[in-house]
Design brief:
Elements (H helix, E strand, L loop, with lengths): L1 H22 L1 H20 L3 H31 L5 H38 L1
Helix pairs in contact: 1-2, 2-3, 3-4
Length: 122
Amino acid sequence: MKNQKFLKRLKIASLGIMTALKEEKSFRIQFLIGLVVIFLMIVLGLNYIEKTILILIILVVLSLELINSQVEKFLDLINPDHHPVVKRIKDLTAAAVLLSVIGSIAMGVLIFLPYIINLVKR
């Protein structure tokens, strides 16, 4: 019985990810960048700590993008007239995504740069 409830929740969550991939351009872009990062992790032979950090960063960015999309859709539903407070709330959630992206780029550079330098030196 518990397994069926878990599987149902997993299916619902998977449908949410599929919806985001279909409807949210920013999510699609970030998802594809995440796949490229995972590919580079494998090709460059990163250690498990570096891989763990990068996977965590990818999941944080994607999760924040999903939350941002949720907030925007909900606010559009309850107040389609673009109230100034609604704009500020949307700006704040977008800022959270932006900060996570900036942080992920910085961490990605710190992790990947030594590997890229070693490839260039060869």
